[in-house]
Structure formats: structure tokens, C-alpha cells
């Protein structure tokens, strides 16, 4: 499954470690929320980077205290019609100030890229190669956005007001 | 009318390109039908019994003549020469080919029409009072707010994959024509003691398998805060709405399970934590949208022009005028409802020729504007009274002057088993038969206001729960049966109807309705007592007795 980050396909340096499997070496790991919460301090003491896969039905409160020490938070889309992780993503970015990698995992198609980016995701475990290849083009699908989110894209309303200001300045 | 600017137009065109890519990927097999299903539903495309159905948005029910002509074009070029107006200010085309859908969308986009979020588990087309901006006594034009909310909900990056569909309706009049109490969020525009404009916010209304009347969650939210408050409701719903069972996934179930107090506390907490996230609508933001609504340059006209006095001698004209012409906020003008419920016809259908003709009439008599109401009728919102006689003649010739607005034959019906893969029973033929039974206009006027609503299955697209008489198709041992409820209503006093007894077979439905109506005529205490008020006073018993005594 290709990983897209910063609009490019990259090698995933994080190893998904299943629950119960022993940790080998000091490489970067992605663990489940259960495994992480069982002994967060031990995991965070390791030399390697740590990421957590946080389920979409679990309150973020349990994760928030560790955010500044995590390299990756992976949020889950069990099917692409299940949109709970969009809210989690915005809360992590916009309310809790998380600025590490925010990864979308699960059933990820190109048709979610714009929504996900707007919600704060910057890394995507994409299901199909063709969709991963199409990432940069897909992100150009839209140039107009109605809603303000933490991604900083200028909204239509803002652009209209700027336009109006520049028009009245010219007069 | 709201005029789209370059940004709105760009976004619609970008959506067309995206959808073209999605269809292409489906046709090439790159997308499975399961994957494509969600994507097509985001853009109003259903797979029905016989073909793809294409649902197109008419936001808050306002339409220009140019847009109406484009509907006629789509009906002719891509469909079978007609379209169907729905209960949520949409139009549906029933026979469209998947490969031609992107072209149909592109043709519509040229006139600022789209199909975004007319189906799927997202925030649906925002609906409002079809008489917005022209109804006497309105607080202010609710379409300004409808448009602000339309923009905010369009391609929302957080709420496009909700547990289930989500519908918002807005009214600004005391008499609710937008049925806000049966919506996920209902907004009633009003002014507080300081004269500030804001909304009573209702939440958790809806029909379907588990019907609920919406409850007030906040008596007053200032207009400037309405987007952030809606955002807070949606965020709570997106995270906590049930996703394990589609029949329990609407916000009404969450509100019901938590209770309105607990739910409202959750929303308040989220709203507080949200703080200022750029959603506050300051004066300039509101005026920006307001400035792109244009209003007709009305003339100063007499209340009672000579043309109207003369036409009063024509009994057919008078009968139509009394039934289908309604007061306008400007003297000398009227709102004219165009009945899409001809005797024997399917409710809400209009042919391509009728659509073109209506567009011409709108240009000639209504400043190029047309409205679409949830009752599946159209309206010309600004007709000078002096033009009424001439307008009547043309409408009559077109089959659009059936004087049955709000009467027993003004039936709301879903497409039912004739089109829909979810239906258990037919709806349209029941409606057609009822319009024949009550075809005599004198009888219909004698009966007075009476709304019959028909749904072909429990999903309740025909809003049967809130019909004065509701008819629900069910399947019993492979045959079509119908449950009858009475006493429902969808207005400001909204309530669900009460079941009168066991379901009756297809062939008996019209007889049963006739019995109920006859019972009402015998029981009402005066001619002005409406059917629904008589049911309220008497309960269902006398009607039940009448229906089942001989069956």
C-alpha cells in the first residue's frame, strides 16, 4: 500500500507492530491505541519514533497528553463512508495544536484527498496505486472553498471581501 | 434571485469535472460498484428499478426562467421529456444514462444548477419557504440565510460522510411552509426583545421508520453565530451518531437516546470549546450575500385593477383565483401557485413543454422567477393582479390551472414501486385514482383544506406521517396493502397522524379514503372546521368505526 506524504509517494519508515508482537530494534513503529496506552512511557523512552493508530470511536482525551511526543497519529477510515476521523483530525490540529504527521489509514480513495487535506491530514496510506499516483492532480480538482478550516486555505467569503476592498480602494 | 459569482461558478464546474472522472473510473472498472455508489450518491445519482435516477438541487426553491428551460433541455436530451419535482425542492430525472450524466451536469452547470448533496449521507439541499421574500408578514427573506448555509454545507471537509443524511430547513414566517419540524435541523427566523435577528433552532425531527417531531434546542441563536452553532451540532452528531444500523443513524435517534437536555449540553460544550474559528458572520459577510439577491422593480399598482373586476364574471377564472392565487407583500401583486396535480396525473411531474411554457410565463408575468414548494407544486411569485386573467387562460391551456391547491386532490406522493427499488407498494396509481374520485371541484371545495400524503414504503418520502390523511404502502404476503393514518400535519403545529386500524388492500384504498371524507363531512361542526381540526376534536374513533364497520 503506497504512502503519500507532502504530495509524493514515499517509503514508509514506520513499521506497523501488531499487539503482542515483540519490538525488535529501535526503528520507528506504529502501534495500536491499546498497546500504546498500556505503557506509554516505556514506548516513548525508546530511541525510535513512535506513532499511534487511534480508532475513530475512541475519545481523543486519552491521546492528548502525549501529542507533543508522538511522531505520527494515524486515524482510521474502516470504510470510506465512515467519516468520524475527519472530526478527530480537525480537533487534533485545530484544538489540540498537534503538528506531527497526521496519517489517514483504512479505505482511502483519491476522492477523499481534498476533504482529508482540508481536515488536517498530511499523510495517506492509499489503497490503490493509481490513486496514489493521481494525488497531485487530484489536489488540483478544487480551487474554491467555502469553509474555513485549520489548513489555512482562503475561503470564498474572504476572497469576496478582499475583492470588494480592492475595488473600493481603486475608486 | 441569487446571482452566482465567479467563485460559485468555478466550484460547480470543478464538481462536474470531478464527477466526470468518477464516472469514467466506474465505466473503466477502476471503481467497483460499491465504491462508486457512495460517490454517485454524493451527487444525486440513484440506481432505481429500471434506470439511474438523477436528482438535481433547487436550493431553497428559487429558480430562474433560464434554469427552468435548462431542465426542459435535460428532460428532452437525456431523459424521456419530463421531470419530477420532489418534496425537498429538487427535480428528478428518471431515465438517465450513466455515460451521459456528466454532460447533463455540465449543461446544468452553465446556468448555475448542480446536484451536489441531493443524496448520500451528507448535508442535503437546504430548503426554505417557497414564498420567501414575497409572503406578507415575513421577518426577513430567509433565503439570505439559506444561501449562507448552502455555501457552508457544500463539500464540507468534515461532514461529507455523516452517519446518515442530514436535512436543514428554514422559515421566516409564522405559518411554516417549509415543514421545519420534520427536519434534522429546523430554523425559525425571528427577532429577540432587542430587535436582533436570529433563529430558534430545532433538532431531531424526521419521518421514516421512527418518526419524531423536532425539539427546540435553543430558543435564540443570533444570526451571526448560526454557522458555528450548526457546526457544533454536526460535530457531535458526526462523532456520536450511530453507524451500526442505518435505521438508527439519523440525528433524531441520537437526540432521542441521549434526551434533548443531554444532547443540548454536549452541543453547548462543543460550541464553547470551538471558540472563534472564523465562522462568525459579521455584518459585511451577511451583506455580501444579501447584495447578490436581486428583487423585482415593482410598479405602483392598484389593489383591484379593472382587468380583475371584469374577469370576476367568469366563474372558471374566479374558482381558480380563489384557490390558487395568494396575497403578496406588495400591493397589486399576487403569488400564483401552479398545480402539478392534474386529475389522473402523477403528482409533481412536468413535461419538457410545460417547463418551457412556464419559463416563458415567468418572463412575461413574474420577473423571470419561479418557485418550487415541498407540496410538489410550482409558483410564480410576482404576478401583477391585472395579468391574472391572461395568465389563467394560458395556464389552463397548459393543464397547469387545476384549482385544487391545498385540496383533497393536491396529493403529495413518492415515486413508489413504479420507479423505486426500496418501495413495497405503488404510490402514484393510488394518487391518480384519488384525483379521479374527487375530480369534482365543487365537492373538493366543499371538503376544504385536506392534505393526503402517500409513501410506498416506511422510508416515508411521501411524508405520510404528517398528511392530514397518510397512506403508507406495506407488503403483506406478496401483495400491496396500505396503512391509513389521520390527523397528521407538517406545519408549525406539526404532529404525526394516528393509525386508524388494519391495513387495507390496494383495491380498497380509494373507497376507504372516500369513507373517511364522508364521515368528516357528516361530523364537522361547521364548514370552516378543517378535516384535521375535526380529527383533533373527535379523535380517530368515529372515522375508524366508519371505515371498518362494513369491512
Structure notes:
- The complex is a heterodimer of chains A (171) and B (551).
- Chain A starts with a strand and ends with a helix.
- Chain A has an 8-stranded mixed β-sheet with strand order 2-1-8-7-6-5-4-3.
- The model of chain A has no long low-confidence stretch (mean pLDDT 95).
- Chain A is an alpha/beta fold and 171 residues long.
- Chain A is built from 7 helices and 8 strands; from the N terminus they run E-E-E-E-H-H-E-E-H-E-H-E-H-H-H.
- Helix content of chain A is 33%, strand content 19%.
- With 551 residues, chain B is of the alpha+beta class.
- Chain B folds into 4 domains: 6-59 and 81-109, no CATH class; 134-291, 2-Layer Sandwich (Sulfite Reductase Hemoprotein, domain 1), CATH 3.30.413; 321-398, Alpha-Beta Plaits (2-Layer Sandwich); 412-548, Sulfite Reductase Hemoprotein, domain 1.
- Helices cover 36% and strands 18% of the residues of chain B.
- Chain B has helices spanning 6-27, 33-41, 65-78, 101-109, 142-153, 226-240, 251-258, 260-274, 283-290, 306-311, 315-324, 352-365, 388-398, 428-437, 441-447, 509-523, 531-538, 541-548, and strands at 45-47, 52-57, 62-64, 82-85, 90-96, 127-128, 168-171, 185-191, 197-203, 215-222, 325-327, 333-338, 349-351, 369-372, 378-384, 412-413, 452-455, 469-476, 479-486, 498-499, 504-505.
- In chain B, strands 16, 17, 18, 19, 20 and 21 form a 6-stranded mixed β-sheet that branches. Chain B has a 5-stranded antiparallel β-sheet with strand order 1-2-5-4-13.
- In chain B, strand 4 and strand 5 (90-96) form a beta hairpin.
- In chain B, helix 7 crosses helix 8 and helix 12 (352-365) packs antiparallel against helix 13 (388-398).
- Chain B is globular and about 60 Å long.
- The relative contact order of chain B is 0.09.
- The mean pLDDT of chain B is 96.
- The chains are: A alpha/beta (171), B alpha+beta (551).
- The A-B interface holds A 80-84, 86-88, 90, 94-95, 109, 111, 114-116, 118-119, 128, 130, 141-149, 155-157, 159-161, 164 and B 5, 7-8, 10-11, 14, 17-18, 22, 30, 35, 38-39, 121, 151-152, 154-162, 235, 238-239, 243, 273-274, 277-279, 284-285, 288.
Amino acid at each position: 500500500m503506497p504512502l503519500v506524504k507532502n504530495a509524493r509517494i514515499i517509503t514508509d519508515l514506520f513499521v506497523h507492530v501488531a499487539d503482542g508482537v515483540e519490538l525488535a530494534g529501535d526503528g520507528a513503529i506504529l502501534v495500536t491505541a491499546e498497546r500504546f496506552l498500556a505503557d506509554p512511557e516505556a514506548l516513548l523512552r525508546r530511541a525510535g519514533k513512535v506513532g499511534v493508530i487511534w480508532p475513530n470511536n475512541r475519545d481523543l482525551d486519552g491521546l492528548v497528553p502525549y501529542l507533543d511526543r508522538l511522531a505520527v497519529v494515524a486515524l482510521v477510515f474502516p470504510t470510506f463512508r465512515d467519516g468520524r476521523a475527519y472530526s478527530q483530525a480537525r480537533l487534533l490540529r485545530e484544538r489540540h495544536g498537534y503538528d506531527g504527521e497526521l496519517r489517514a489509514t483504512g479505505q482511502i480513495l483519491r476522492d477523499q484527498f481534498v476533504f482529508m487535506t482540508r481536515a488536517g491530514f498530511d499523510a495517506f496510506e492509499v489503497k490503490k496505486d493509481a490513486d496514489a499516483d493521481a494525488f497531485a492532480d487530484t489536489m488540483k480538482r478544487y480551487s474554491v472553498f467555502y469553509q474555513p478550516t485549520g489548513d489555512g486555505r482562503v475561503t470564498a467569503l474572504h476572497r469576496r471581501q478582499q475583492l470588494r476592498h480592492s475595488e473600493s480602494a481603486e475608486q | 434571485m441569487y446571482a452566482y459569482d465567479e467563485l460559485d461558478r468555478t466550484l460547480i464546474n470543478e464538481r462536474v469535472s470531478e464527477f466526470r472522472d468518477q464516472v469514467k473510473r466506474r465505466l473503466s472498472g477502476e471503481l467497483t460498484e460499491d465504491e462508486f455508489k457512495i460517490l454517485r450518491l454524493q451527487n444525486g445519482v440513484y440506481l432505481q428499478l429500471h434506470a439511474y435516477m438523477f436528482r438535481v438541487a433547487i436550493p431553497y426553491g428559487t429558480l430562474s426562467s433560464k434554469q427552468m428551460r435548462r431542465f426542459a433541455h435535460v428532460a428532452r436530451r437525456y431523459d424521456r421529456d419530463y421531470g419530477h419535482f420532489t418534496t425537498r425542492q429538487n427535480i428528478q430525472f428518471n431515465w438517465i444514462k450513466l455515460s451521459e450524466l456528466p454532460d447533463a451536469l455540465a449543461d446544468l452547470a452553465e446556468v448555475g444548477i448542480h446536484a451536489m448533496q441531493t443524496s448520500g449521507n451528507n448535508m442535503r439541499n437546504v430548503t426554505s419557504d417557497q414564498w420567501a421574500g414575497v409572503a406578507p408578514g415575513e421577518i426577513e427573506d430567509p433565503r439570505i440565510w439559506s444561501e449562507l448555509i448552502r455555501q457552508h454545507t457544500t463539500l464540507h471537509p468534515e461532514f461529507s460522510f455523516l452517519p446518515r443524511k442530514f436535512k436543514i430547513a428554514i422559515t421566516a414566517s409564522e405559518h411554516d411552509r417549509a415543514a421545519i419540524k420534520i427536519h434534522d435541523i429546523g430554523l425559525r427566523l425571528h427577532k429577540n426583545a432587542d430587535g436582533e435577528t436570529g433563529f430558534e433552532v430545532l433538532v431531531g425531527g424526521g419521518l421514516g421508520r421512527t418518526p419524531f417531531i423536532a425539539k427546540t434546542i435553543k430558543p435564540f441563536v443570533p444570526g451571526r453565530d448560526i454557522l458555528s452553532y450548526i457546526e457544533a451540532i454536526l460535530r457531535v452528531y458526526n462523532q456520536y451518531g450511530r453507524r451500526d444500523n442505518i435505521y438508527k443513524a439519523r440525528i433524531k435517534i441520537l437526540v432521542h437516546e441521549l434526551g434533548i437536555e443531554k444532547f443540548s449540553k454536549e452541543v453547548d460544550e462543543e460550541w464553547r470549546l470551538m471558540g472563534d474559528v472564523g465562522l462568525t458572520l459579521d455584518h459585511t459577510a451577511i451583506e455580501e450575500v444579501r447584495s447578490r439577491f436581486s428583487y423585482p422593480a415593482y410598479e405602483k399598482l392598484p389593489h383591484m385593477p379593472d382587468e380583475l373586476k371584469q374577469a370576476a364574471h367568469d366563474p372558471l377564472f374566479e374558482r381558480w383565483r380563489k384557490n390558487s392565487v395568494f396575497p403578496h407583500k406588495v400591493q397589486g401583486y399576487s403569488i400564483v401557485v401552479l398545480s402539478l396535480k392534474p386529475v389522473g396525473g402523477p403528482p409533481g411531474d412536468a413535461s419538457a413543454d410545460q417547463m418551457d411554457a412556464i419559463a416563458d410565463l415567468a418572463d412575461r408575468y413574474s420577473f423571470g422567477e419561479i418557485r418550487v414548494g415541498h407540496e410538489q407544486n410550482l409558483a410564480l411569485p410576482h404576478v401583477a393582479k391585472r395579468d391574472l386573467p391572461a395568465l389563467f387562460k394560458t395556464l389552463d391551456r397548459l393543464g397547469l390551472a387545476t384549482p385544487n391547491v391545498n385540496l383533497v386532490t393536491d396529493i403529495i406522493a413518492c415515486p413508489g414501486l413504479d420507479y423505486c427499488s426500496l418501495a413495497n407498494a405503488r404510490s402514484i396509481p393510488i394518487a391518480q385514482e384519488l384525483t379521479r374520485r374527487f375530480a369534482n371541484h365543487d365537492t373538493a371545495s366543499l371538503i376544504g383544506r385536506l392534505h393526503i400524503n402517500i409513501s410506498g414504503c416506511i422510508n416515508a418520502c411521501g411524508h405520510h406521517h404528517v398528511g392530514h390523511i397518510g397512506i403508507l404502502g406495506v407488503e403483506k404476503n406478496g401483495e400491496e396493502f396500505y396503512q391509513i393514518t389521520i390527523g397528521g400535519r407538517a406545519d408549525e403545529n406539526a404532529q404525526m397522524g394516528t393509525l386508524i386500524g388494519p391495513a387495507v388492500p390496494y383495491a380498497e384504498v380509494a373507497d376507504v379514503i372516500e369513507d373517511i371524507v364522508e364521515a368528516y363531512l357528516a361530523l364537522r361542526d361547521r364548514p370552516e372546521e378543517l378535516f384535521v381540526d375535526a380529527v383533533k376534536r373527535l379523535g380517530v374513533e368515529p372515522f375508524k368505526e366508519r371505515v371498518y364497520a362494513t369491512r
